Amino acid sequence: MHVLYDWLQVIGVILADTHEQAVAAARKVRVDYEDLPAIISIDDAIAHNSFFPHHHEIKSGDMEAQKSLADVHISGEGKIGGQEHFYLETNCTVVLPSDNGHLEVHSSTQNCSKTQHLCASVCGLPDSKVVAKCKRMGGAFGGKESRSVFIAVTAALGAHLLKRPVSINVERDVDMSITGQRHSFQYKYKAGMSSSSGELKYLEVQLYSNAGFSLDLSQAVMDRALFHVDNVYKWPAYHVRGSVCRTNQPSHTAFRGFGGPQGMIVTETIMQHFAEVTTAFSLEQIKRSNMYAEGDRTPFGVTLESFIAPTLWDRMMDIASVSERKQGIIQFNQANRWRKRGLAVTATKFGINFTANFMNKVSCCQ
After folding, report:
1. Confidence class of residue 360 from pLDDT cuts 50, 70 and 90?
2. pLDDT tier at 86 (50, 70, 90 boundaries)?
3. Is residue 121 part of a domain?
4. C-alpha separations of 292 from 60, 107, 286 in Å
5. CA 146 to CA 141: how far, in whole Å?
6. pLDDT recorded at residue 4
7. pLDDT score, position 279
8. CB-hemisphere CA count at 13 Å for 190?
9. Residue 266 domain-assigned?
10. d(Cα 126, Cα 115) in Å, to the nearest integer?
11. pLDDT at 60
12. Contacts of 277 (CB under 8 A, 6+ apart)
């Protein structure tokens, strides 16, 4: 008996003379199975306490003191869906055996080193006997940073055992089913501000992400989300916590932004919420007045240098005539029942460091 941890988990590989024969044979395979209880969604994981072991958090400031200074308190929750990478070229690999048991692996991958190491490991070879190459990719967007490798090793193993070239080109529907997506998130928040000054006082957030059946890069994605929840705004008291959910979905993975967009969506939702419950300040005023200033220190200990977000914001608001255009939008919407217009202004940040410190390197040239 073999227990599957993912409802679209790979259970075998068919080698054939042509791609079409392999696809036809794979679709004739009949699997007898017994349904076991499954954890699919983040809500399921929370209900069954199904998490990967580490729950990371960032804490800064005196939470109780700042709560006492706030007279506008809000709370809420939200969901952020996943996203398919949908690269034009699906995962594909060609492996060529060469002299003395060596393998040459041509793979559509963002990670040649991991492809080399794991192909060698599966075939029982030293890394020095495997050369991994990628001339170009037909798209990846993070989806081939790690999840391309388990497909590449199937071709490597076939070539190693048969001593002949083997290629694999995954069909679109199969690729979308097994390779994982952008992580879906859920969040719960509590936040407070001063009604007289519009100053933010405190923020408490609990993040959940759906990792799928294995950890893959999910902890790093969650960590990056935690580092982006503040966005460009200063919170005197700040506490965010992240929990990575273990479910029976395919293992989710890297996607452009790598958790940053999910973190910033939380904060922008909170800003919108504040603007809806107070009439003293517009959404843009709340955002602008609470931006970090030069020399401020973030909740995770970074002192801001050459911080130009407020300057860019002011310049953009002027160049784009945002206030005037918003007045025109209000008039248009009042005069049109079915057609509506809108205009949003959003600041974002992009953290350039890796959460794995050894990957943060600087080259100095003279």
Report:
1. confident
2. very high
3. yes
4. 15, 44, 12
5. 11
6. 66
7. 86
8. 11
9. yes
10. 13
11. 97
12. 72, 74
Tell which residue, 132, 41, 130, 140, has the closest CA to residue 91.
140
DSSP 232-259: TB--SEEEEEEEEEE-SSPPP---TTTT
Which amino acid is it at 173?
Answer: D
Mean pLDDT, to the nearest integer, of 328-355? 92
What is the edge-to-edge ordering of all strands in the sheet holding 56-60?
A: 56-60, 237-246, 200-212, 185-193, 72-80
Evaluate whether residue 130 is within a structural domain. yes
Cβ contacts of 120 within 8 Å, gap of 6 or more: 103, 126, 127, 129, 130
H/E run at residue 80 = strand 72-80
Answer yes or no: do 55 and 199 share one domain.
yes
- Answer whether residue 345 is part of any domain: no
Q: For residue 290, what pLDDT is reported?
A: 98
Mean pLDDT of 113-117: 97
CA 113 to CA 130: how far, in whole Å?
A: 10
CA distance 156 to 168: 10
* pTM of this structure: 0.93
* Lookup: tokens for 98: 């060469």
User: Is the CB of residue 293 less than 8 Å from the CB of residue 91?
Assistant: no
Q: Which residues, at least 6 apart from 230, have a Cβ–Cβ distance to it below 8 Å? A: 203, 238, 267, 298, 299
Residue 362 has pLDDT above 80, yes or no: no
Query: Are residue 73 and residue 93 in the same domain, yes or no?
Result: no
Strand pairing report for 166-169 and 130-133: unpaired
pLDDT higher than threshold 60 for residue 203: yes
In 3D space, the residue among 293, 292, 342 whose CA is nearest the CA of residue 322 turns out to be: 342
Q: Where are the beta strands (DSSP E) in 140-182?
A: 166-169
323 is written with which tokens? 């206030």
Looking at 178, 198, 219, which one is the last position of a domain?
Answer: 178
Number of domain units in the chain: 2
Do 222 and 292 fall into the same domain?
yes
Question: Nearest 5 degrees, angle CA 125-CA 126-CA 128?
Answer: 120
Which CATH number does the domain housing residue 155 bear?
Answer: 3.30.365.10
pLDDT band at 7 (very low <50, low <70, confident <90, very high): low
